[in-house]
Predict the structure.
Amino acid sequence: MSVADARFFEAPARAEAAGAVAAAFGDVFGETPEGVWSAPGRVNLVGEHVDYTGGLCLPLALPHRTFVALSPRHDDVVRVRSAQEAGADWEGSLSEVGPGAPDGWAAYVAGVAWAMGTAHGFDAVVDGHVPLGSGLSSSAALECAVAIALADLDDLPTDDAGRAELAAACVQAENVVAGAATGGMDQAASLRCRPGGGILLDTRDDTVEHLPLDLAAAGLALLVVDTRAAHSHSGGEYGARRADVERAARLLGVPTLREVDPDDLDDALERLAAAAGPGDDVAVLRRRVRHAVTEIDRVRRTADLLRAGRAREVAPLLDASHESLRHDYEVSCRELDLAVDAARSAGALAARMTGGGFGGSAIALVEAGAVGAVAQEVARAFADARLRAPQFLSALPSAGAGRDA
Ligand code: GLA
């Protein structure tokens, strides 16, 4: 048996990370930035792939954040630098920003200013501490850090209603400028979460209920396994899933699958088969609908348990979510299934993939004292399967986007 160490990806202290990005700004632009802001990555406890069909989801903010040091300019020029990647600079004018432009990571910075209708340019240095490509929303963290910075500088409201508007602008930047047809869960989590809890997000009207998630009081912890598996097909597959549920909703004559009552699921699946046309793969559409409808119901039931302070009892719902994503929605992959199976056999109460899938991360609900042991077993399973070593994060429910300095 191979020996593997579980490597944890720790979040730096906020003040330290804010100081570092301000210093980097000084090095690049030769002056002190107007301010430093940051926004977190997220994990989703349950409610996966339902945010683009009117569903409910239940994400929480990670302690891992993306920082931006920024100063406004008097013209419409935007200059952005990455503290991580030398040479990944972008410089342009706001008038050049629009559908599909710029490409690359600058879309998530300049695109946000475009979507917010910001009237001035800015200089910015970005420093991310959300692992890239991990399915933990590093791109939403970047968008939301820029959005909160611009809102703060331009005196836009940053109460919860204001944050809901900022989230909508970030989604707009992602959908239109970056060209990724994602839903709105990640941006809502990054902007609207509060320490100590998750948000029950209703994507039908973007309302949020703050739910307590005091796992420590229940003797539990949430362990994140970043499989570090590349998810190169995620763009096309994600869009294909979205197209499936939109087609299914049209066939059922409802605006979104949220309108399908879980008690009438069997009936809806029969109606779907009857309404399908020659170009439809009925078996596939039935599975997609079954995932969406049962997943939304699992979120409802998880929220009820959390409201009642019965966090431990959510375990079977999380497990069922993974099986549904794996078999009905088909967005899991070998590495995610291995992480989930290994965590469960190492004693996790529950485990499931989190985020978009096809690589990325899984979460495991574990006894507080067993975090290290479960991580070790998962690392060992990856080593035995000769897969790239995963890394681990602790998901302590943390603060949403805000000003650091
Ligand atoms: C990605 C998207 C989100 C959501 C999840 C799946 O993270 O950005 O909008 O659809 O996948 O739940």
